[in-house]
Amino acid sequence: MRMYWETDDEVILQGTDYRDKDLLGLMRCGKSPFDGIWDSMRLIQEIEECLNVQVVDIPRVYNGRYNYGFHLILSNRQEVIARLAQTDVNAPYYSGKTATDLADQVRFEVETDRLLRATPSIRAARLIYYRTPHQLEEELLDCPRNISGRMLLVNQKLPGNSNVWSTFNATQKKAFLSQAAVIRAAKFHLELPAGFVSSWYYNYVAAQASRPIDISNMTPREICMACVAIRIEAVMGRVGEDVYENYTSGVSAVVIKRKLLRLLPHLLSENDFLYRPVLEHNYYGVQHMSVVTDENGVPTITSVYDWKNAVVLPAILSNPVLAVTVDLVLNENVEPHFSRAALLASDNKRAQYMSWSEDYFEALFEHAPDYERIMKTGKDVRYVWFTLGKWRGNNPDFFFTTLAEWVQKKMVEFDLE
User: Fold this and answer.
1) Whole-structure pTM over 0.85, yes or no?
2) What is the mean pLDDT of residues 202-228?
3) Hey, what domains does the chain have and what are their CATH numbers?
C-alpha cells in the first residue's frame, strides 16, 4: 500500500519521510507525523463516531494552503476527503478570522452544497459532514492538542484524479475541454434562490464597501455598479488621497479614479439580464476536478470540488476561465486567449494553448450562447473589473499610464470630455 503526502510535490513532515508507510497504523500507535502539533486520532475518532463507520485506510494526505486534506477509505467502502483547517482559533496569539466568520464560511459551503445537489450536471462533490470551529473564552498558553478549534468538512470522493492533463493526448484533451465547458455552462444557467442571493450576494457586496450602503432597494444594474465602484475604491484609495507614492508620471491615481467613477454608469446598459447573480467557483480548473478514463481512453469528469472560495457575482462580471497547464481566458475583445504561459514558451506551444482555448470557448458558447452575448455586451466594464482585480501593486507607473490611456479613450467615446 502506498501512502503519499502531497502538495504540488511530495513533502516531508518533521524531518521524517512517511511515504510508503501505513499512516493509519502509525496514528493508532501514537506515531503520527503530526505528533507535537495536534492529536490526529481526534480526527479519526470524530469521523468514525459522527458517520458511524470505521476508517480502514489513509491512502493520501494533502497539504493545502489553508487545510490538511485526508483521503480516507471507510468501512462501508465509501471514500471521502476530510478537510481540516491548518489554523486553530484557540492557538496562542491567533489573529485570523473570527470563529463567527469561519462559521459563516462553513454555512456558505453547506448551502452551496444543497444548491448544487439539485443540479447533478455541475457534478459537485457532495458534502457529507461538517463542523464549525469552537472558540474558547480563555486564552491558551500552548497550542491545543484537540481539533475543536479547527474547521472540519468531509466530502464524498468520487473516482478519478486531478493530475491527468499532462497524460492526455490531443483527442482526450479536446474531450475534456468539451465536458468542462458543459459543466461551466450548467453553472451559468443555474438559477439561484432568492434567500441564497440575499445571504451571499447582497450581504457580501455590502460587507465589501468602505462605508455603509443599503442595496435592498437597488436594481440589479445598480448593485453591479456598486460592485465595480467598491473595487475602484479599494484599489485606488479614497477620493482626494493619492495612496501611490511611487507613482510619479502621467495622470494621478486620484484623477483616474474620478474619471472611472464618472464613466462607470455609461459602461452598464439597462438590460437587467446582464446582471443576474451567478455562482462563481473562482478556481475552476483540472486541479479541482476528479477525472477518470474508460478502457478506450475517453476521459470523464466525475466531480468538481473545492467550492469554499466560490462567490456570487453579476453575470457580466463572471470569469469563464478554465485552468489547465495555462489559464484559458477571453481577451478584452472577448476572443479566446490564454495566460500564465511560460515566458520562453515556443511558438508551437503557444499555438497549442490557443487551440485549447478555442476548443473550450467554442463548446462553452455553443451550450450557453447568452453567456457570449453578455461577455461581449459588457466588455468595457469587464476590462475595468479584471484590470483592477489582477493588479498587485507592482510597476504603478505602467499600470496607471495604461489605465489612464484607456479611460481617456472611453471618456471621448462617450462624449464626456
Assistant:
1) yes
2) 86
3) 18-156 (3.30.200.20), 159-416 (3.90.1200)
